[in-house]
Amino acid sequence: MESRVVVLITGCSNGGIGHELARAFAGRNCLVVATARSLTSMSDFQNDPRFFLQELDVLSEQSVTHVLTNVLDKFGAIDVLVNNAGVQCIGPLAEVPLSSIQHTFNTNVFGPIRLIQSVVPHMASRKKGKIVNVGSCSALAPGPWCGAYSASKAAVHSFSDSLRLELKPFGIDVITVVPGAVTSKIGDAAIVSYSQMPEWKLYKKFEEPIRARAHFSQGPKSTPAEEFAKRTVNAVLKEKPPTWFSIGHMSSLAAIMYHLPLFIRDIIGRKLMKC
Ligand SMILES: NC(=O)c1ccc[n+]([C@@H]2O[C@H](COP(=O)([O-])OP(=O)(O)OC[C@H]3O[C@@H](n4cnc5c(N)ncnc54)[C@H](OP(=O)(O)O)[C@@H]3O)[C@@H](O)[C@H]2O)c1
């Protein structure tokens, strides 16, 4: 009998993409290790035997080691790691506190690398595994007001390309998933951290478009997270998964922007973001 695929996902709080990915993997008969910083944010999964719920903070080495030990003790394997947890960082690069930029990179870049370094020895010993890194369309055509976030996601895209080649000899697939605009709590979370930013000096008059950038991906046409998750899971579970794919509202626009000459991209970016 085929053993069930064990999938570990970071950032599975209710209302976000991770939560829907957990549901979609479970719907495909996987055993899902749904992780989040707080178990209460996944309470709807609590009595469902398809889920093994664990508290995991991607910033903590201790937390990652503890969860991986628990999972390997319970299931003996991790087949798929999904690095989904992430934070936005809204504000002009010249004035965003360095500590906020560092927090963004710690969460979005060093968090996934911490998980990857912990799980690779196990996957390599079995000569199989899949590592899914969640990037962002905003890294394809970075505009103003979220430079730190876009740069962190560009780093995810870039390190995933290196990792894919480095892990090939060990039978491990690396998959970059690039969401467009997908419904989640990312805008609300961004506003909470934005409220802790200092008052802008040079950028006072741009306060309105800067603040509005927090919810840019959360419009009425945004792709429902459930739909995004189902399509992502279908791709990831293929025997030969795609190395890179983009799903979601505005993902085609972002792909076009990526290929446009910079002077045209700048005209569009300035118009869209009012600067
Ligand atoms: N939604 C979009 O349109 C969009 C577009 C492009 C890329 N993305 C990417 O998609 C991924 C999921 O985001 P989302 O849209 O679902 O946003 P979300 O609803 O805000 O979810 C983000 C998740 O990351 C978790 N997280 C944050 N810091 C963490 C940490 N230190 N350790 C563990 N978990 C942590 C959050 O946990 P808490 O609930 O505890 O804060 C939450 O579960 C992110 O990587 C994001 O950058 C989203």
Automatic annotation (TrEMBL):
GO cellular component, one term: endoplasmic reticulum
Domain of life of the native organism: Eukaryota
InterPro entries, per the entry: KR_dom (IPR057326), NAD(P)-bd_dom_sf (IPR036291), Sc_DH/Rdtase_CS (IPR020904), SDR_fam (IPR002347)
Family, as annotated: Belongs to the short-chain dehydrogenases/reductases (SDR) family.
GO molecular function: oxidoreductase activity
Keywords of the record: Oxidoreductase
A UniProt-annotated Pfam family: adh_short
Listed PROSITE patterns: ADH_SHORT
Protein name, entry field: Ketoreductase domain-containing protein
Domain Ketoreductase, chain residue ranges per copy: 5-181
Spans traversing the lipid bilayer: none
